[in-house]
Prior knowledge:
Elements: H1 3-25, H2 27-42, H3 53-72, H4 101-107, H5 112-123, H6 128-135, H7 139-154, H8 165-178, H9 181-187, E1 188-196, H10 198-206, E2 218-220, H11 222-229, E3 237-241, E4 244-250, E5 255-264, E6 267-274, H12 277-281, E7 285-287
Parallel strand pairs: 1-6
Antiparallel strand pairs: 1-2, 3-4, 3-7, 4-5, 5-6
Amino acid sequence: xxxxxxxxxxxxxxxxxxxxxxxxxxxxxxxxxxxxxxxxxxxxxxxxxxxxxxxxxxxxxxxxxxxxxxxxxxxxxxxxxxxxxxxxxxxxxxxxxxxxxxxxxxxxxxxxxxxxxxxxxxxxxxxxxxxxxxxxxxxxxxxxxxxxxxxxxxxxxxxxxxxxxxxxxxxxxxxxxxxxxxxxxxxxxxxxxxxxxxxxxxxxxxxxxxxxxxxxxxxxxxxxxxxxxxxxxxxxxxxxxxxxxxxxxxxxxxxxxxxxxxxxxxxxxxxxxxxxxxxxxxxxxxxx
Length: 288
């Protein structure tokens, strides 16, 4: 690639890179991080081999910023600096508007890895699978980093304090109705699994335009489950299902579908959506 063309392509991504670095290390250090990313791009033997330049640059800038944060707080976490010359698997291109400047001050409460996981995921929408190699953690551990960061930003206690299942289900329903993706993640265990029987899947597909969640036979992981329910469940109501808090869709005459919840230590670890009328008829449902 011609150097002039390469510089032009980099310039096109520069505003996004400054936004990412700015949220991670502040505006002044962001300029240094973005400039370093340009130098590393310019040193590449074959820039044309980079299939996703936006993702490659985002990953490089994130790693440079993480090392800057760790240099500021050398006692914040145990891992050594990551080798950031090669970003490894290229991240998907992302875009997001800059968030309020007050957030930058709040982010100073977080450890470097928490800050990076929270900002890249919650602010810029990068999947945890792409953030995990940057912070040198498993995907599940990276979700927990973002979760801890999210709670600390909101001034909430750590997730160890257990809430009653009824409170968790009520909060889940409110977050789903409001489309509050972050709040849903706070209520879901990272390894949560959503399962739905064939009848429930068919009904949800038929009623997707009327607010029903987009179900599949099995949906693993907090991210995926939160995306199923965000902005949905408008007609669901809280009940006791065989004595356990849950949700149902119901008409005046019958229960159409049930949402069973398994709650452990204040987090939803499993959900089951039941639409089979025979199963529903054999279940005790008490409206609360």
